[in-house]
Amino acid sequence: METVQHIITIDELEQRITRMVKQMENRSPHASDSSGRYDDMPVSWWTSGFYPGLLWLMHDVTGNAFFKNQAEGWSRKIEEAFQEHPIILHHDVGFQFLLTAVMEYEQTGSEDGLRIGLKAANYLAGRFNPIGGFIKAWNGDDKKGWAIIDCMMNISLLYWASRVTNDPSYGQIASAHANTTLQWGVRDDGSTSHILSFNSHTGEFIESIGGQGYGPDSAWSRGNAWALYGFANACRHTGKRAYLHAAKRIAHFFLAALPEDNVPYWDFRCGGEEEEPRDSSAAAIAASGLLEIEAQVPQREKRMYRRAAEKILQSLSTHYLASDESEAILTKATGNAPQGRDINVSLIYGDYFFAEAIAKRNGWQRRIF
Length: 369
Ligand code: GLY
Prior knowledge:
This protein is mainly α. 51% of the residues lie in helices and 7% in strands.
C-alpha cells in the first residue's frame, strides 16, 4: 500500500512566504547561499518577477492585503530596466512582466499594469524572426539565430496581449514560435533540446546546442519542464490539440525518467545519476504543468496527471523543504550545472512554481502563464 505523505497546505505556505517577506527587505532574489540566504540581483535579471509573483499569488489565494502592499511597485521598478542602453532585457520579459505587471492588472485592473505588460509584449514581439518563425532568446551578435526551450513559457505574455488588445498578431507570433519549437526542439521520445540554432537570414535550422543541459542530445530536466508546461499553456490559449499532445509526450518522458523520489537530476541524460545534483525547481515547474495538462484532458485521463503532480509535490513537501532558518521554500535546486553555477541551492523560481502548484491543487483558478 502506498503511504500517504503530507503535501504542504496553503496555511503552511502562507507562513513560509510571510517569513520570507520579513527577511527579504528590498532585495530582488535569485539564488541562495548555503545558509539559505538569498542574493540581490539587478531588476534587469531574468528572475526579477518571481518574488513579486509569489506575493501577488499569495494575495490572490488568501486575500491578505499584506501581500498586495508588498507586491505593488515592483512592475514600475522592473520597468526601469527598459531605460538601460542598450536594453539588456531579453525574451525573459515574459517571466518578468507576467508575474508583475500582468498579475497586477489582472488582480486590480491597474492601468500601469496594463501599460507595462503591453510594453513588455511589444518588446517580446519585436524579437520575432519571421523567416525562421522563432523568438530570439538572448542578445549578442553570436546569438541572433538562437531560440531556447524556456521561451515556451514567455509566449504566454503574447497570448495575453492578444486577449487584452483584441489584436491576434501577438498570439500569431506566439504560435509561430511554438510550431518552430515543436518541429525542432521536441524529440520523438518526448525529450527536448535546450538551444535551437538557426541561420538568422534564411531561417534554416542549423543544430541543437546543449546550453544548460549536459549536451546537444541530452535532456536538461528544467528545459523539459518548461516545455511540458509551455505547450500545455499554448493549447489552453489556442485550442490547438497538437500542443496538448506535445505537452503529454514531454510529460511522459519526464515522468518515465524520474528517479525513485520523483525529483529529477539536473539532466536526465547526464550519466552519473546518484552523484549528480537534483533540480527541485524542475520538479516544481513540472508539477504545475501537469496540473495544467490535467485541466485539459478528458475526465478518464485526469487522475493520471493529478497523481503524477501530487507525487512530486509530496516528495518536495517531505524531503526538499528549506529549514526554518532559510529565506527560501525549497532546497536542492540546480541553476546551471555546465557552468558550475548555483548547484544545490534554493532558486526563487523553484519557490514560485512550487507555490503555484500548491495553489492550483487548492483550487486557485487564475492563470497567468
Ligand atoms: N530560463 C533559464 C533557466 O531556466 O535557467
